[in-house]
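Key result, reporting period 2: structure in, sequence out.
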């Protein structure tokens, strides 16, 4: 059974920091591209950051320079370090694991963790 379990969300003041973690089980973690998405109330889910199996990263323009994604293939975890948080970063943050094996896609989601940036 595949599980992605996020943790680390919460309430933080503008300018503050949070660190989200996602623990994966039931998959060969090292072959998956891992990503963080977020969805704010009334908005579509959007991609925040990705980290490929080889370690290359990509970020949404809105978080570039403030957020850092990293992975630990030994511990099957992916983290999102979020600094200089803004109220616009308020959303439910979701962990995603995606890969293709012989053209067959495998795509898994966590349950989400709430991040609220407010004074």
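The corresponding designed sequence is given below.
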């Amino acid at each position: 059974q595949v599980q992605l379990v996020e943790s680390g969300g919460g309430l933080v003041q503008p300018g503050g920091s949070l660190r989200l973690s996602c623990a994966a089980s039931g998959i060969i973690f090292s072959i998956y591209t891992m990503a963080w998405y977020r969805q704010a109330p009334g908005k579509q889910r959007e991609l925040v950051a990705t980290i490929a199996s080889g370690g290359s990263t990509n970020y949404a323009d809105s978080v570039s320079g403030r957020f850092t994604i990293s992975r630990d293939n030994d511990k099957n975890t992916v983290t999102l370090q979020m600094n200089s948080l803004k109220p616009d970063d308020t959303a439910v943050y979701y962990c995603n694991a995606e890969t293709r094996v012989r053209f067959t896609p495998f795509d898994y989601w966590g349950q989400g963790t709430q991040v609220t940036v407010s004074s």
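The chain has a mean pLDDT of 96. Residues 81 and 87 are 16 Å apart (CA to CA). This case is discussed further under Risks and Mitigation.
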